[in-house]
Structures are given as C-alpha cells and as structure tokens.
Design a protein that fits this description.
The complex is a heterodimer of chains A (about 325) and B (about 290).
Chain A: H1 5-34, H2 40-45, H3 51-61, H4 67-80, H5 93-128, H6 133-147, H7 150-164, H8 180-214, H9 217-224, H10 229-253, H11 255-267, H12 272-282, H13 285-312
Chain B: H1 5-11, H2 26-48, H3 80-116, H4 118-131, H5 136-147, H6 151-178, H7 181-188, H8 193-229, H9 241-247, H10 257-278, H11 282-285
Classes of the chains: A mainly alpha (about 325), B mainly alpha (about 290).
C-alpha cells in the first residue's frame, strides 16, 4: 500500500485549500458581521449612551483601530480560545458555548451511530437488487426526503409520532432528563428527523458507489463464472467500493450542519445552532461569529476528509 | 465579433430541434405539468385568490378545511388558500431570479475559465473551491443577519451561494468541448474569445447546463424555505411558503391544515422538478462529470 509522491502532493494540496478556505471564511464571517448597522458601543450602552460614554467605550473596546487589526486580533483570540464576551448578557462566549457544543455533538453522535450502519446496509442492498421493487421503493423514498426542506421532515415526524400516534411529545424538549425513558423521549424526535435527512443522502451515494463498481469488467467476469449475486457484490465489488463509500459517508455527514440548524430550532433543542439563531435575532455579534466559525470548521473538516479519503482510496494513484 | 448575424442565430438554437421529437415518459410529464401549474399560479395567483391576502376573514384561527376556506385559516384567521397562491409568487419568483443569476454568472465565468486557461482559470477555480467550504444555510444566515432581509438581498445571497456550483459544472463541460477539433479550427481562424464562448462552446453544453439549472432551482427553493422558516427570509406581512409554515407552526400539534398545505406546496414543486430532470431524455441531460 505504498503511496506515490503524487498522492501526498494531492493530499497536501487539499489541506492547503482547506486552510486558505478557513482564512477566507473567517474573513467573510468577521466582515459580514461588521456590516451590521448600528454602532456597537451605542447598542451596548443603550439608555446611557452619552457622547462621552460612547467615545470612552469605543476607545476601551479598540473600535477606533483599523478593521484589519481588529480582524487579526479576533483571529488570534479564536486560535487561543478567547472568543470574546457576549453583548447581551456579558458572559464569556466560551462559557456559553461549552455546554451547547456538548449537546450538539451528542445529537450528531447519536445520529451518526444510527445512520451509518443503517444507510450502508440499505444502500448496498439496493445496489445488490437493482431495479427490483425494493430498490425502487428505497429510491422513491430517498428522492422524496432529499427534495423537501429539513423542516418539513421535522413537521411530518411531529404529525405522525406526536399528533396521530401520540407516542412522543410535540415540539418540546425537557432539559431535566432524569431517567432513560425521559432521555429517549427527549432525543427521539430530533434524532429521527436528522437521521432521515442524513440517511437519504448516504443511501443514494452508497448505492451509486456500489453500482459503479458492479459495472466494471471484473465483476461481470465473476457473474459469468457463475458467482451468486450476493457473492458477486459482497466479495468482488464491495472491497473496491469501500473508498467511494467512505467518501460518501463523510460527505453525507456534512448535511448534518445544515440539518442541525433547522432541527434544533424546530424542537427547541439547546445546542449551538439554537444559540446562533437566537444570537442572530438579538444581534449578539461575538456569539454569531463564534457559532458560525464552529459550523464552518466542522463542515470544512468533513468535506476535506471526504476528499482525502477519495484521493487515498484511488488505486490509480498507488505506485 | 465580425461574424455575420445569420450563422450565429442558427447555431444558438436550443437543443430541442423541431425535426427530432423528444419523448418524455409519463413521470417526466407529470413533473412538467406540476411545474407549469405553479408557474402559472405564480403569475396569476393575485387575481384568482378568493380573499385579500392580508385580510382577517375568519372568526376562528387554525380553522379546518371548509367550503368557505379551502385550506382552512391561519393563526390570525386569514385564508390559507389565498396566502398559498400568493406565496407561489415569492417562492417561485425569488428562486427563479436567483437561479437564473447564479447559472448565468457561473456558466459565463466557467466558459471563460475553460477557454482562457492559465492564471485566470487557476485563480477563479481556487477561489470557488474555497467558497464551496461554507455551508449554504449558514452563509445565508450570516449575510441576512448582517444586512437585513429584503427580496433583492435574498436573490443576491441565494445566487452567490449557488454560483460556484454552476461554475464548476460549466467549466468541467467546457474544458471537454474546448479540446475538440472544431474549437481548435475556430481558434486558428483567429476568432475572438467571446465568439468561441458564444458560438462554439455554449451550444454544445446547453442541454446539461439547463438540466443542472433545474436541480439548482430545487436547492435554492429548499434554502429559501429554510431561511424563511427561521424567520430570515421573506418578511411579514408577505409570506412565501417557508414563512407560511413558520407562522403557523403553533398549529402543528392541532394538526391544522394551515401548516400542512404550504408544506405540500413546497414538496410538490421540488419533487416534480426532480422527477422531471431525472426523466429527461439522456440526450439532453447527458453529463460529462
């Protein structure tokens, strides 16, 4: 499994692109939030905004310095874990984020643990029995889930599980979960919704990856020498489809980033996304900036990971 | 650009030639019918709505479906049927404007990059790659938070989100066409870059580009609805379909039709565009990447 210099060059290039992207993204996030109308010092002082007080606070906050210096200072703060102070309740952003981030990561972790095995088996099965009724049902279902907005999947889940079946509470999240049952009920709806969104992507991509391998001459050869359909797919095609499948998994997980914003809002789940949407409505700049960076970094890591897996698993680069 | 007018006009035809009928299968036809239906509604919705859009007409909020109110009433007692008809204008209109802008800019830049090559191509491609690393809904969220929500801002933001994808797609197609003999010949004739783009490359990538436009339209409808659902899209008293769902989400636990019908409207539009594109004759949507 020796990798050639080309492979490492490609990987290096990809990591370089990711780094440049990160700088551009942080630049964009900082200046987009700078565009917000209204003077920060005036907003902070509110009723007490006398001209002297505003000048003093601007001086103290370093708002008179050029934007580029403030940007560099902010970037340095991010790198060292100093995320600034929330404008609204004067709490350190890092403290606000800590608990919320854990909640969001827990949600994402549970969804990943459910989705990956489920979608891989369904995707491989659909590819194995291509053009059968099973395959068609899977494909219609995944297309439907992909074509509708995330909030609609959430709405449907509430309609079915809370309103019609009355199994789970609608639109409420109990913060104090004391028993296993209560925890399951609290997590069930967000997890179901996110799983649908992420699985649909993953199943489609897995199916496509396996089918692409099935269409190669050596798999046809296996079929011609009399191997069963299962043997043909599982023994001959699957090992070579593992790279594209891993790529598909990482890529589909990046849909968690968009999905989680909607799902946390719908179900009032105390995660980073809810925090950010609330921060947008209260115009709490440091909080918006930090949350946006968290999402961008996780999204960027996932798609970079997907690309790197695709490069590493490409046998044509292996010499 | 000294080429005579006539050959240009002849060559710039759409790939739907009159002498060759393309057969759509029935799934594609259903998709097309639903798309056309919503397009017509977007134009004439204002005149066929039974009640004024912003007027409170019912005594009851979240009223069920009745002969008087075909889709029930919303959280204030306004007629949902009228609001869905008017919402079509916002959802379809904004998404169409944004997708047209995104695809036009992306395709022109993509063809220029493919034909010009060199540092122009390299710089633009790297920049677009970098832009691709931003999650779309998040980008919309930050921009709208920064400059406030209005319809021009929404159109431009959505166009900016989907321009890089259109650029990559068009560039990949154009690079292939650019390597063909007839382009080399045209270049040897001394044709200008703008002629190469408009008369040699564009007609040969138009089919796949139009199919791609359809798919991008779906993504834009989804992000627009998502933004409106978060309260950052079309602002009250106007409402697109996403905003209608948001307004009436309280009625969800009552199973109110006010939540269900706008959702069905979004789903019917996006699913039918997907069905239509999926079932286009391969001749049109043949993709090279």
């Amino acid at each position: 499994m020796l990798r050639s210099a080309t492979t490492w060059l490609l990987i290096g290039q990809r990591l370089g692109t990711a780094l440049i992207t990160l700088v551009i993204v942080s630049f964009a996030v900082f200046f987009a939030t700078e565009l917000l109308p209204g003077d920060v010092a005036e907003i902070l002082l509110g009723q007490a905004a006398t001209p002297e007080a505003v000048t003093g606070l601007r001086e103290a906050m370093g708002l008179n310095e050029p934007a580029i210096l403030r940007f560099l200072g902010w970037l340095g703060g991010l790198a060292t874990g100093d995320l600034g102070t929330s404008y609204v309740n004067k709490v350190e952003v890092a403290d606000l984020l800590a608990g919320r981030l854990a909640n969001s990561l827990r949600l994402a972790g549970i969804v990943t643990a459910i989705c990956v095995p489920l979608s891989l088996s369904l995707g491989i099965a659909a590819a194995m029995w291509r053009n059968t009724l099973f395959d068609r049902v899977i494909s219609v279902m995944t297309i439907s889930v992909i074509s509708v907005p995330e909030f609609m999947v959430a709405t449907l889940a509430v309609l079915i599980f809370a309103v019609w079946l009355d199994w789970l509470p609608a639109l409420s999240y109990g913060v104090d979960v004391d028993s296993l049952g209560a925890m399951l009920r609290a997590y069930a709806m967000p997890v179901i919704t996110l799983s649908f969104v992420v699985s649909a992507q993953m199943i489609r991509m897995t199916r496509a990856a396996v089918i692409e391998t099935i269409n190669t001459p050596y798999v046809e050869m296996a079929l011609l020498k009399g191997a069963s359909r299962a043997r043909m797919v599982l023994i001959h095609a699957l090992p070579n489809a593992l790279g594209p499948i891993a790529n598909a998994v990482a890529l589909s997980l990046s849909y968690l980033v968009g999905g989680v914003i909607i799902v946390e809002t719908v179900f009032n789940y105390p995660g980073v996304a809810k925090l950010m949407v609330d921060a947008v409505s209260t115009r709490d700049l440091p909080l918006i900036q930090s949350c946006a960076m968290i999402f961008c970094v996780s999204y960027l890591s996932l798609i970079t990971l997907a690309d790197m897996i695709a490069i590493l698993s490409n046998p044509r680069l292996r010499h | 650009m000294t080429a005579p007018e006539t050959p240009n006009a002849r060559r710039l035809r759409l790939p739907f030639r009159g002498d060759r009928a393309y057969a759509f299968n029935w799934i594609g036809r259903i998709g097309l019918c639903i798309i056309l239906f919503w397009l017509v509604i977007a134009v004439i919705g204002q005149w066929i709505a039974p009640y004024p859009v912003g007027k409170i007409v019912g005594w009851d909020y979240f009223a069920p479906v009745s002969r008087e109110f075909w889709m029930g009433t919303d959280y204030l007692g306004r007629d949902i049927f009228s609001r869905v008809l008017m919402g079509a204008r916002y959802t379809v209109g904004i998404a169409l404007a944004a997708v047209a802008l995104a695809v036009a800019a992306g395709v022109i830049l993509g063809m220029m990059a493919a034909v010009a090559g060199g540092w122009f191509d390299l710089l633009l491609s790297r920049f677009v790659d970098a832009f691709n690393g931003i999650p779309s809904l998040l980008f919309g969220l930050v921009v709208v938070a920064a400059v406030g929500s209005s319809i021009p801002v929404l159109v431009l933001t959505l166009a900016a989100i989907y321009m890089p994808g259109a650029y990559r797609f068009a560039r990949a197609l154009a690079v292939n066409v650019n390597a063909m003999d007839f382009v080399t010949v045209a270049r040897a004739r001394g044709e200008h870059t703008s002629y190469l783009i408009a008369c040699e490359i564009l007609p040969n990538i138009l089919g796949p580009v139009l199919a791609d436009l359809g798919l991008r339209f779906v993504y834009i409808v989804l992000v627009l609805s998502g933004l409106s659902f978060l309260g950052l899209g079309v602002q009250p008293p106007n409402a697109d379909w996403g905003a209608l769902v948001r307004e009436n989400i309280e009625g969800l636990s009552l199973g109110a039709p006010a939540v269900i019908f706008p959702s069905i409207a979004i789903a019917s539009l996006t699913i039918s565009v997907n069905m239509f594109i999926d079932n286009l004759p391969t001749k049109i949507r043949d993709r090279s990447d």
